[in-house]
């Protein structure tokens, strides 16, 4: 089985972007860590785009293929109704999507306290650095969600 790990705007700059907030690890480091964590038979398909429409299309792909998703939507989290509507499409086929954030968004700027995607996500993990993704991977591979 495959798990999509989707990353939104500016996350290709991890490593040099505000390391005091996001740490010094790069997206390539994250990919390596998740591959190390992934149980036998679980394939990590990590992608990043700075474009809202690309993320919408990747969510559509998850709907059509029934692939579970770990999503860090970056700033789109706070205002993208297009992404929210795409994520809502996962409900019917029953495909899980976990919203993740590297930083604790609730301890930061006011505009980061709002997520327009949380209500259509299966669950939310924020504030644990790259471990936010690792915890989501554990949830998707080890637990049934009931
Ligand atoms: C982020 C938090 C967002 O507010 C921000 O725009 C990001 C990264 C995080 O992982 O902490 O790009 O999603």
From TrEMBL:
EC numbers for this chain = 4.2.1.10
* Site, Transition state stabilizer: residue positions: 17
Fetch the InterPro entries from UniProt. DHquinase_II, DHquinase_II_CS, DHquinase_II_sf
Q: In which pathway does it act?
A: Metabolic intermediate biosynthesis; chorismate biosynthesis; chorismate from D-erythrose 4-phosphate and phosphoenolpyruvate: step 3/7
> Which residue positions are annotated as catalytic?
22, 101
Alphabetical keyword list: Amino-acid biosynthesis, Aromatic amino acid biosynthesis, Lyase
* Gene3D superfamilies given in the database record: Dehydroquinase, class II
Q: Which domain of life is it from?
A: Bacteria
- Residues holding substrate: 72, 78, 85, 102-103, 112
Could you mention a single GO BP entry for this protein? amino acid biosynthetic process
Per its record, what are the GO molecular function terms? 3-dehydroquinate dehydratase activity
Q: Pfam families from the xrefs?
A: DHquinase_II
Catalysed reactions, semicolon-separated = 3-dehydroquinate = 3-dehydroshikimate + H2O
* Physiological role: Catalyzes a trans-dehydration via an enolate intermediate.
Q: Which family does it belong to?
A: Belongs to the type-II 3-dehydroquinase family.
What HAMAP family does this protein map onto? Answer: AroQ
Assembly, per entry: Homododecamer.
Q: What is this protein called?
A: 3-dehydroquinate dehydratase
**Originating organism:** Mycetocola tolaasinivorans
- Gene name of the record: aroQ
